[in-house]
Amino acid sequence: MIEPLYPKSFASDNHAGVHPAVLKAVAAAGAGDAPAYGDDRWTGALADRLRAEFGEDAAGLVVLNGTGANIVALGSMLERRYDAVICPETAHIATHETGASERLLGVKLVTVPTADGKLTPADVTARLGERGNISAVQPKVVSISQVTELGTCYTADEVAALARAAHDHGMLLHMDGARLANAAAFLGCSLREVTTDAGVDVLSFGATKNGAMVGEVVVVLRPELAEAGPYLRRQSLQLASKMRYVSAQVSALLTDELWRRNAAHANAMARRLADAVTGLPGLSVEWPVQSNAVFARLPHGAITELRSRYLFHTWDEPSGVVRWMTAFDTSPEDVDTFATDIHQALKR
Amino acid sequence: MIEPLYPKSFASDNHAGVHPAVLKAVAAAGAGDAPAYGDDRWTGALADRLRAEFGEDAAGLVVLNGTGANIVALGSMLERRYDAVICPETAHIATHETGASERLLGVKLVTVPTADGKLTPADVTARLGERGNISAVQPKVVSISQVTELGTCYTADEVAALARAAHDHGMLLHMDGARLANAAAFLGCSLREVTTDAGVDVLSFGATKNGAMVGEVVVVLRPELAEAGPYLRRQSLQLASKMRYVSAQVSALLTDELWRRNAAHANAMARRLADAVTGLPGLSVEWPVQSNAVFARLPHGAITELRSRYLFHTWDEPSGVVRWMTAFDTSPEDVDTFATDIHQALKR
Amino acid sequence: MIEPLYPKSFASDNHAGVHPAVLKAVAAAGAGDAPAYGDDRWTGALADRLRAEFGEDAAGLVVLNGTGANIVALGSMLERRYDAVICPETAHIATHETGASERLLGVKLVTVPTADGKLTPADVTARLGERGNISAVQPKVVSISQVTELGTCYTADEVAALARAAHDHGMLLHMDGARLANAAAFLGCSLREVTTDAGVDVLSFGATKNGAMVGEVVVVLRPELAEAGPYLRRQSLQLASKMRYVSAQVSALLTDELWRRNAAHANAMARRLADAVTGLPGLSVEWPVQSNAVFARLPHGAITELRSRYLFHTWDEPSGVVRWMTAFDTSPEDVDTFATDIHQALKR
Amino acid sequence: MIEPLYPKSFASDNHAGVHPAVLKAVAAAGAGDAPAYGDDRWTGALADRLRAEFGEDAAGLVVLNGTGANIVALGSMLERRYDAVICPETAHIATHETGASERLLGVKLVTVPTADGKLTPADVTARLGERGNISAVQPKVVSISQVTELGTCYTADEVAALARAAHDHGMLLHMDGARLANAAAFLGCSLREVTTDAGVDVLSFGATKNGAMVGEVVVVLRPELAEAGPYLRRQSLQLASKMRYVSAQVSALLTDELWRRNAAHANAMARRLADAVTGLPGLSVEWPVQSNAVFARLPHGAITELRSRYLFHTWDEPSGVVRWMTAFDTSPEDVDTFATDIHQALKR
């Protein structure tokens, strides 16, 4: 029996537990023999589901965590030892992966300041001035996060424009879709519409934040990039021997669009929180709420007061911006109680 | 419901499923919030158990797979960009980790031919002739596998002698203990007696082959090496956000010595198989059976016949040596049926 | 006999030839045997000179080029696989070394926007907010360029303040001194006053731009960092077998302060050029001229006109900023002719 | 004036000085401006000479040292992060480059025991058993040394057979030709006959041991591999800014086959030494003398005696094998005196 020290956490969708359907799927993959390293029927079934979701050319590689997905994805796209990746300054690969891209891939990330976490085609083309200069790294991949680290979403058209900008200059488009489910739920579209159809070449597709226990997927959408993936996954420490227990989790989320229900619920809870606090004196919501995160600026005293009772992250200490996240298992009551406590904290 | 295409697999202990106690522990860690990235109570409880098992100075880091454990372990021990690792030619890190040590750590593995997969102190000291030569890498770590890749075990005294050889020359001793449980069961000793007490500095401690779903542990036994671990685990793609579900699995195996019962059973099944086939005309057992593997040499025709009906690995194609492995869930009947079929195959 | 296609180049101090004293020293190191890989008397003599120049604790390592010097220097300072380097956005290591730091060292460069290429202590401390966060790289080295890539210089006090900021937070200070000679000449101080005495821990000391043929020096000023250098130099492809011919060049520049005469002359020529063009209609000098570079903004038409006849680099295409560099062998006549041509180009 | 502590060194052809023609060429490249980073006329002229020597498709890249040449060469050939290199156990890249291949390229070297330092096609094909196994590295390059580290030479036919074996299996052939000149002189063939014509894909072509000061060349013989070279050279710290002074050296050696005269002389001196000591009681010559090295086995007492007066390397301490090398500037008198002293030492 778990007795939380805190009420519902608003720190991260990673603080949530496992969705019951995921746990059930793991148990069902249970006892008895199965070939190891992904040669099992559960992994085969997942590959089928991924093709159904992302298109016939989609090659899915189950991996073990989000940074692992990004490393395998980028590793599949980078060819030459002087290739570089263009990404927003806020990109998770640039800020909170302990330098894994630089250390494990040896790649330079060319980071771009943005207003809202979203890259534009002009941002990309402005970084191509040193093509052919042997003293400069050569951009080969554009990497965007969908949902961004600021909770905003790219529309399918915006993704497509970035894909064109990349492809027009001989580059590829990577999407870090740790919260792709939340984006598709917000945009009201299929997973495919903002990925395959919009020109994404390789996708890191998140499952953990959506209700899985451990597991993500790299989805290679451009067939000629698919060969290296299985080797890179193995070498990059992302292949579990008993892979069936990971594959079964992702399959559960892809069954009957459980992923969408989970994401839509989390999004609705963030919306509910944003609505409840918008207009409170001393508080401002920083970026459009387009997923399951609310970024709010409020007085340091109120932050301190709230942090004594709730788990959440300070996003920018000097300016007093915090991040509140909801999850598939956040309840309306959790949100309402929190909103009331925010209200109280602002009054003091 | 699983319907295996084959009878019980003898290919690897990785083909086995999950022990029921592990599955139960995962479910118990189930719903509700918990801090992510290992700051949860299950991970805390596991740390306590590991200290109980390996000594008060043991710092445990749950990781996601065996190669990951080795990379984090070696990464914690290697300091200088020209440090090298001495290991047997048969070491898993040298043969079947897709070059992860070279690629992710940038380290040269100095490999040593052995008769039975076991390194000796003399093997180590013979590789120190270029100490101080700036054109040569400088050995800093000795890495051994317990159980070895040939199914043999080091005694505690043999491990201690290697630790002394390493320490006497300013080096450290790493143990790849993917099957440490099987070794301790074979030797009839505690986990601690062949690791901490024998002078091992950092241990990769396997759980998956012993009945877990996904998860291994790096155990740092020398306190001054412990600081880097959490960063290296994060950077090396071995930190799950919902770590509680991994920690709970390992804790289940450490409860009431479930690990020993699982390992002892697997070992007994290998012993049973070896006993049943020893002396069969045309078949020879290659190395002492000291764990859950039997290496046998038999005619190519018999191998082909058996492979049409059973899963197992050919260890050395030209000489006709195969590897048969048992697991915690191999039954005496599985073994007896297989032995009978081997007998038949040899007759043709 | 060389017949240049162009008049004197203003593109880089790298376009200049070799100082006659350097060539003479190379010839003098000439024939006969000498131990290889730096165990020769010329390299020994250089080590003595470097100690005389930078202090008794200075350990000098001759290397083959500037990027090599930076890689060996940074490699000597970075310990842990998650250490990072804080440097200005304009730093050569960040912009024009083809990602060598990321590729060869695996390190993330944390880049800081600056007004004039110079880092401040506040810039450094503002990047330390994620100390102890395992998902963030951990700054270990502050790297500055002296002269900066914008031609500006740090005073000795400014360097000392940065060293204190670094040391106070457990970090080290690296100086990329590809043009350190020019800085010391501008500041009117010894090499030691802006390096050793100001708290620099490891220095990349440039010789090529000052009149050498091929060769630079890494000077380790903190003894406990010196052990790794010889191995790192060898591994990082910076050790010549016949090192005497490189050492002799640097010694020539350090004899009777030839380095200072060469640098002071180059600086004076830049000053002369800046004076000659300051005030010309349509032209503005961008940063204080504190070394041998003049950055000027002028109309694109004038740039095009001048580039048809002179070699120099466009620094920022959109804004029309160009870089004009002088060298030890630039003559007053070269400058005056160029200034006249600039004047003419602006008139059209 | 140099007063050597020892008579002529027999330790390495690296102990020799610079050939007068090389020094003269450096001086001739002397003063005045030239574009940097290889865009100069001397480097252009060298490219022409290399095409004349190795064929119209040969793309030469001047680099700074032998390990640098090997890293740039291998880096041009390796594509995927799990590619491996097959080479003899004695290969310089495997033994005396401080692990640069593993550290800078992240590549595993699959080393092969040999009798005489020479790889055979059967050695290569025997290492291809794990093609397609994602847990194993995938051989992509075969690397041989010509002359080998044991002083032996491959015939053109032997090289061609290895090239066929490599190409037949989708691999490439690299030649570490640090002493290619000595091999061509021994074989009495052109440089091209044992490289381009024999199917070598990328060559490290040595100049330093042949009489240069500092400088080697990577020669890419397969056009589709040529694109990456200039970037890799820059990133791998092998591009000098004043490259003309390096290019001029190599050109001098390629003028009127100076390389062949230098190499033939060195070879003849080794032959003279071998002839003088063959048959002496207690001494045996270990491998065929096919270049400028003599490997001899002799009593430890005699080795000690000789080492007190001469510089040379002990090759294998336990068995008492030493290496004696000659150079372009070794004289018959040097050899005869040394042979006499060997004779004396054996008598005691």
Structure keywords:
homotetramer, alpha/beta, Aspartate Aminotransferase, domain 1, seven-stranded mixed sheet, four-stranded antiparallel sheet
How would you portray this structure in words?
4 copies of one chain form a homotetramer. With 348 residues, the first copy, chain A, is α/β, with parallel strands linked by helices. Chain A has 2 domains: 20-257, 3-Layer(aba) Sandwich (Aspartate Aminotransferase, domain 2); 259-347, Aspartate Aminotransferase, domain 1, CATH 3.90.1150.10. Chain A is 38% helix and 16% strand. Chain A is built from 13 helices and 11 strands. The first copy, chain A, has helices spanning 20-28, 41-54, 66-77, 92-95, 100-105, 121-125, 156-168, 180-187, 229-235, 244-254, 258-277, 300-307, 332-347; strands spanning 59-63, 83-88, 108-112, 138-145, 172-177, 202-206, 216-220, 284-285, 293-297, 313-316, 321-325. The radius of gyration of chain A is 20 Å and the shape is globular. At the A-C interface, helix 5 of A face helix 5 of C.
